[in-house]
Design brief:
Layout (H helix, E strand, L loop, with lengths): L2 H10 L4 H8 L3 H7 L6 H19 L7
Length: 66
């Protein structure tokens, strides 16, 4: 998966690259450099897990009484 495909996947899920980078455990500059080269299958799997976790946490809404 190329960097532009990764970016499109992240944006398509309503996320920012820095959010994914933070969840990955790196700063956004390093993540940006990582996107310059194709992602391995392991990286793609990890990316999908991170995206799923982040989108799931964004869809949770706080109770109405807060």
């Amino acid at each position: 998966m190329t960097g532009s495909e990764v970016k499109a996947l992240i944006r398509g899920n309503g996320l920012k690259c820095w959010e994914v980078a933070e969840a990955w455990g790196m700063n956004d500059g390093n993540f940006s450099r990582k996107m310059r080269r194709p992602f391995s299958e392991e990286d793609v799997q990890r990316l999908n897990i991170i995206i799923n976790l982040l989108t799931a946490s964004k869809t949770k809404k706080p109770p109405a009484d807060l």
